[in-house]
User: Which sequence fits this backbone?
């Protein structure tokens, strides 16, 4: 990707997906706008139904999201760990989650005939870890462990690309507290940190009451991006601000205030979920602490998930048009792309190294841009062609070096694709504009 320490487009592995008899993908498999754009523009590639390769641009975006999440988890004393992907199914039997067959679980058997689960979530694994070192002194709590890893679900119909896959990247956190009161405080703190994560991503979201489903526990909230393709239906009461997943309430009246006319129904994509679990897992699996008077107390738990690969696709889904991909600044693989003139053009000899110098200057003056500027060095292509590519890929700031750059005083053409405006700016104005108009 790098030439002389610079990110250069000609070196990026960005294959476009060609749907042919040979490929493992058919047009019917492409069920959403974000999936089509991410495939067409070489962000991801389908490996098998519901499983995707993250290509360099897709992974760059994912890593930006991971950085935001790590940052916010650190602020609430979250400690990052990594649990094994395989969980012994005995733990799931002990927690009661295997009492009935679960169709979505991937299960495997080892050579000694022991059954394992390719984990979709790690409540049992995390609780068993605590249990294996119990009783733990009360001084260690609150304890907040989280991981970012691949999760597995045997979806009947994988669809919408990264939004409903069979293998996906999730951040999951498990919290342990000595009593219900402190566990509720933890729950509030994690919810506030999730609010900050979504504020930083910059896509409009709602937090609604959610169903605890198979997870159990007594309280649950969902974070939803509003989108027509969303599979969840949300009720929002304009009278009292109550909002919930429709699974929890009727469609006609607000269960909180009884209001019937001021109800707003919409569809959403679930991007985060929080559960207050109490002792549902800690009791059967024996995760306890020793209290001040040396008595053993069962730990109180919470479980919190962010669907990271899904958030990427959902962000693209919400912002993009049918033909052009759009990213929130915080997750865009690059924030600025520079287009030097075509090889052999009149401007070429007079603008030698101008693109490289501007690249270096942008990174120097705006340190947050380091690693976020891209040089489209495919100079055998016209500016027009490269401009269309850049626009379609959703780069927020497209800088064009053209005839005006060769004149005195010299100017750059800046295309702000988020605001849909074109500006002619001096170098100083250009740097200032990009600084003012990028959200880091
Ligand atoms: Zn209401």
Assistant:
């Amino acid at each position: 990707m790098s030439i002389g320490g610079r990110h250069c487009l000609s070196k990026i592995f960005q294959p476009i997906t060609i749907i042919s008899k040979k490929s493992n993908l058919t047009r019917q498999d492409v069920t959403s706008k974000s999936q089509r754009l991410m495939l067409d523009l070489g962000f991801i590639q389908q490996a098998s139904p519901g499983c995707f390769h993250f290509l360099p641009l897709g992974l760059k975006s994912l890593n930006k999201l991971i950085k935001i999440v790590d940052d916010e988890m650190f602020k609430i004393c979250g400690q990052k760990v990594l649990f094994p992907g395989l969980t012994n199914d005995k733990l799931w039997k002990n927690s009661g989650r295997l009492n009935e067959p679960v169709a979505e679980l991937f299960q495997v058997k080892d050579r000694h005939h022991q059954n394992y689960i390719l984990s979709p979530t790690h409540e049992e694994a995390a609780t068993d870890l605590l249990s294996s070192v119990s009783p733990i002194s009360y001084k260690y709590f609150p304890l907040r462990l989280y991981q970012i890893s691949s999760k597995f679900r045997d979806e009947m119909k994988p669809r919408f690309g990264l939004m409903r896959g069979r293998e996906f990247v999730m951040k999951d956190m498990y919290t342990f507290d000595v009593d219900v009161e402190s566990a509720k405080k933890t729950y509030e703190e994690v919810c506030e940190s999730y609010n900050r994560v979504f504020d930083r991503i910059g896509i409009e979201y709602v937090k609604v009451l959610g169903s605890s489903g198979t997870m159990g526990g007594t309280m649950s909230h969902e974070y939803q991006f509003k989108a027509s393709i969303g599979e969840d239906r949300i009720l929002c009461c304009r009278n009292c601000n109550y909002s919930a997943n429709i699974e929890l309430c009727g469609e006609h009246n607000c269960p909180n205030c009884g209001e019937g006319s001021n109800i707003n129904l919409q569809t959403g994509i679930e991007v985060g979920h929080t559960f207050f679990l109490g002792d549902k897992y800690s009791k059967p699996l024996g995760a306890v602490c020793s209290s001040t008077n040396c008595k053993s107390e069962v730990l109180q738990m919470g479980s919190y998930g962010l669907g990271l690969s899904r958030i990427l696709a959902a962000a693209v889904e919400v912002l993009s048009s049918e033909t052009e991909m759009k990213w929130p600044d915080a997750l865009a693989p690059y924030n600025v792309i520079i287009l030097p003139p075509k090889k052999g053009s009149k401007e070429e000899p007079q603008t030698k190294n101008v693109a490289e110098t501007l690249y270096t200057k942008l990174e120097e003056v705006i340190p947050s841009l380091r690693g976020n500027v891209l040089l489209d060095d495919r100079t055998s292509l016209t500016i027009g062609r490269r401009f269309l590519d850049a626009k379609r890929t959703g780069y927020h700031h497209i800088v064009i070096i053209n005839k005006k750059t060769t004149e005195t005083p010299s100017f750059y053409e800046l295309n702000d694709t988020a605001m849909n405006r074109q500006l002619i700016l001096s170098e100083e104005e250009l740097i200032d504009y990009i600084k003012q108009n990028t959200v880091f």
Observations:
- The radius of gyration is 25 Å.
- Residues 237, 239-240, 242, 254, 256-257, 259 surround zinc ion (CB under 6 Å).
